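HUMAN:
Just now I want nothing more than another pair of eyes on a protein record. I would be glad if you read both lines and explained how they fit together. I have put the entry right below:
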Amino acid sequence: MAQPVPIEPPARQKVHASFVVNGERCEVAFAPHRTLLEVLREDLALTGTKHGCELGECGTCTVLVDGVPVLSCLALALSCADRAIETIEGMARGGTLHPLQDAFAELGAAQCGYCTPGVLLTAKALLADCPAPTRAQIADALSGNLCRCTGYAKIVEAVERAAAVMQRAASDARSEASS
């Protein structure tokens, strides 16, 4: 009589996926039911992305997927395969902080800092789509990011300051290119 072939339980099955995380291609093996948040933190050791409510209500786990804010606690990692993912660890470039990070530090827009990575990445996506947002547009964009420490005023001011800095830099670059 033939011996039955053991079937690996679904919890132990792994899928292999490729991601471009913070500009670098990586291959990861993980259980197909795992969220992007779990894979980023536990498999790739990118702990800047925070566990929050894990219900998609607080925005603490926000990352950018192809430049769009995504709640990583709700996204299956497998659904993000072969896509560009940016976490807070990838926001600074070559040792230089992003203008949003500078503005947050200068204005004291981060208190405990737990929500800050999600807020910064959401604001970055806003400024990529709308370089000169109004206060209402900033508030609307950040409405899915909850902060228990601030009254949001400094956060909005920091986004406004970063937008102004980025607009000046773009204007200066255009001036240099045309001369």
Observations:
- Residues 153-178 form the longest helix (26 residues).
- The two ends are 85 Å apart (CA to CA).
